[in-house]
Amino acid sequence: MALSDWEERPPDNEYFEQRTSYFRQGDVFRDVPLGYPFPADAFSHTAGNRKFLSGPFESGFGLLMTPTCSMAAQGTPGRYAHAVRSLAPILPLEQLVADGVIKPGSVDDLRRYDHLINYLYVPRIEEADMPESLALLYAGITVHHDYLEADPDEGGDGDTTRRIAQLSEPAAVHFKYKLTALYTGVLFSHADFSDEIR
Fold this sequence. Notes:
Largest sheet: 7 strands, antiparallel
Low-confidence stretches: none
Shape: globular
CATH class: Mainly Beta
Mean pLDDT: 85
Distance between the termini: 33 Å
CATH topology: SH3 type barrels
Helix content: 10-25%
Number of strands: 9
Oligomer: single chain
């Protein structure tokens, strides 16, 4: 897909908004186990002109990819139907550029259009010490729901989950736009998606 085909992503200051007390697709979590069953020396795979990071990773930030409608218990708002959660690892953009995964010349266009099909641009979340990053949409991991509910701050600051942010409606629509491009190879319009809370 040509850069000219991509619509601009939402601006950083409109990316996050507390929308629900329950978990939704696109929520950002901290202290997520990002381990994979790869050999210790497996770091990257290259074929042709592309390079993909494959691990091994430790723990860090993750973006919930499980669709909200799949998690929700039908007819019971705020309850969950099953405990399986799929997340995309979130890694710092600076690290991905340094590792040669992202070309330095594409960063300005990435910040404007978020046009790299295998990734989702995630703006910096200052209060969580998360730098400007990319979610690796192609490298989903699976965790149990209860792991996301666990309190990572045993100091007792009142935070009872690992969630640090929730996507705003425009950012959630953009996320669906990116997932559709990745899994279908077709680029729709932001106008083709919605993310209303029901």
